[in-house]
Structures are given as C-alpha cells and as structure tokens.
Amino acid sequence: MLNLTIWIIVFIASLVALIKASDYFTDAAEKIGLFLKMPAFIVGVTIVAIGTSLPELVSSIFAVLRNSSEIVVGNVIGSNIANIFLVLGVAAILGKKLKVEYRLSNVDLPMLFGATVLFSISIWDGLFTIGEAILSLCLLGVYITYTVSTKKPDKEIKKEIKKRNKVKKPKGLDKKVWFSLGISSIFIMLGAKYCIESVIQLSSMLNIAKEIIAVSAVALGTSLPELFVSFTAAKKGNPEMAIGNVLGSNIFNTLAVMGIPTFLGTLIIPRSILTFSLPVMILATLTYFFTTQDREVTRWEGFMLIILYVLFIGKLTSLI
Questions:
Q1: Angle at 60 (CA atoms; ends 54, 65), nearest 5 degrees
Q2: Number of C-beta neighbours around residue 77 at 10 A
Q3: Percent of the chain topping pLDDT 70
Q4: Any bridge partners for residue 8, and if so which?
Q5: Which residues contact 195 (CB under 8 A, 6 or more apart)?
Q6: Distances (CA, A) of 272 to 21, 81, 255
C-alpha cells in the first residue's frame, strides 16, 4: 500500500513538473514567434503546438526506452481525443467567441484529416514501421515548411496580421527567454522520465494495461498544457491561437510523437486500442473537421464536445 501511494505521488508530481515546464517552454517559444511577427494562428499551429506537445513526445521516447512502447500509441490517441473533445470544448465554453479569420479548409483541415488517415492505416496491422515513421515525418516537414513560408496570405490572414500588429512587439529577445527555454526543456525531460516510470509501476501494482493508463491518465495529463494555453488564448480574445494550437498539436502528435520514437525501438500496437480508442479518435477528428468548417466553434458545440469526452472516459474505464 505504501509503494502504491509513493508511485501515485511520483505520477502526480512528475505530471505537474511536465506541465509547468511545458508552460514556460511555450511562453518562451511564443515570445520568439511574436518577435518574428508571425500571425497568431501560425504561432499556434507551429511553435505553440510543438511546445505543448513536448510532454507527449518526451514521455513517448522514455516509454520506448523502458520497453513499454504500447504507451506511445495510447498517449497519441488519448491526447488527440482530449485535445478536441476536452481542450476545444473548454475553450469554447469558458473563453470568448472562438472565430478565426484564417481559412482552415485550404490546407490545415485536409492535413489533419490526411495525417489521421495515414496514422490509422499505418497501425491497423499492429505494426508501425520505420518506413511509415519516415513518411509521417516527411509529411510533417512539408506541412510546417508550407505553413511558415507562405508568402502571399489571403485577405483573411492580412486582416488577422493587421489586428496582431496593434500589439506591441518586443524589440529584441533577452537572455531570459533562451534561459527559460533551456531550463524548461530539462524539467520536461525529468518529468516525462518519472511519469513513464510511475505508469509502469502503477500498471503492474493495479493490474491495469499500460495502454489504458496511457489513453486516459497520461493522455489527459500531457494534454493539460494545450488546455491551459488554448483556454488562456480564448479568454484573452485570441481564438486563432486556441484553435490553431489544437489542430497543430494533433498533427504533431500523429506524425512526430509516433514517428520519432520508432527510431529507438519497435512500437507495440495493442489490439484493444484498434477496436475502441482509434475509432473514437477518428470520430473526434471528423467532429473537429466539420465543427470548424465555418471557422467558428460555438459555446453549444463546446458543451457537445465535453459530453463526448466524458462518454469516452466512462466507456474506457467501464464507469458508464
């Protein structure tokens, strides 16, 4: 009983360290994006999305190194579901009106849908090969390059940039930004290491499959940075960053969080993931796709998303 209590404390403490460190990392990364005069949606879908997805990536790397690679796919699927149903839902309910000027249907939504299809096909046979990992990372590289280097924004983007330019830009980046970036990276690593170690120990003590803990507790914990960032952005009247963060995080999770750990070891894809959690992730992606078609997420749609997440967790844990 004492060991169980200790490892629960370690799990909670490591998640707190992971989340707090990611917050500092993301804040520093956002300042860099602001300094470079990037539009809010672009900052959200690239810099902030990658920053808030670091917990998923680093914890997945440690999972493979500890021969618990089934945690990786559970983490990816669970985080993507949480990002859409929980993060976007909370931002829509508690934040200001979630409406973006950026035309999502041109590239970003098709990329999210395409990444989900590629991911689903890749893991369906119970294997995720290095070839599939390379293909995923190449697709991510193309998307980031296109997003950052688009030189001729449409009038919606121009309008958003004009609004963004009213915010005072920093004249330079002081050493504190880079120091914060470096220190937070170290704590992200430590938090992820002990988070995975505690999951391995708890799954053994409680006789619960690692992938179930990954899809629920780990995924929820590693999605808290997205939740805080998207909620804060929506509350401050910056819906572009809130919506862009969810979209970019899911693309990054699907392509990079699955792709990078593959080079360190073979990824195990549990059958239970394919029969329940994967279909729910596809449903969540389609829900995001259709909900954001009009470039707005209403409060009522937010309530619907939260209900779907509660239903998912209830079914996963057999509480419903």
A1: 130
A2: 30
A3: 83
A4: none
A5: 11, 14, 15, 18, 59, 62, 218, 221
A6: 32, 16, 21
pTM (two decimals): 0.79
Confidence band, pLDDT 50/70/90 cuts, at residue 278: very high
Contacts of 258 (CB under 8 A, 6+ apart): 60, 72, 73, 76, 119, 122, 123, 128, 133, 136, 267
**36-45, 158-167, 285-294: which has the minimum mean pLDDT?**
158-167
The position carrying tokens 């992730």 is 281
Q: How far apart are CA 111 and CA 175, in angstroms?
A: 36
**C-alpha dihedral, 113 to 114 to 116 to 118, nearest 10°:** 160
CA distance 195 to 218: 8
Q: State both tokens at 198.
A: 């505690």
Mean pLDDT computed over 45-63: 77
Fold of 2-316: A middle domain of Talin 1 (1.20.1420)
pLDDT at 187: 82
Q: What is the pLDDT of residues 129-185, one digit of tens each?
A: 999 999 999 998 888 888 777 644 545 445 544 554 544 455 556 678 878 878 887
Q: What is the CA radius of gyration of the chain?
A: 19
Residue whose pair of structure tokens reads 């950052």 in the numeric block: 148
The amino acid that residue 229 corresponds to is V
Instruction: Give the span between the Cα atoms of 68 and 163, in whole angstroms.
Output: 47
The 3-state secondary structure of 6-56, one letter per residue? HHHHHHHHHHHHHHHHHHHHHHHHHHHHHHCCCCHHHHHHHHHHHHHCHHH
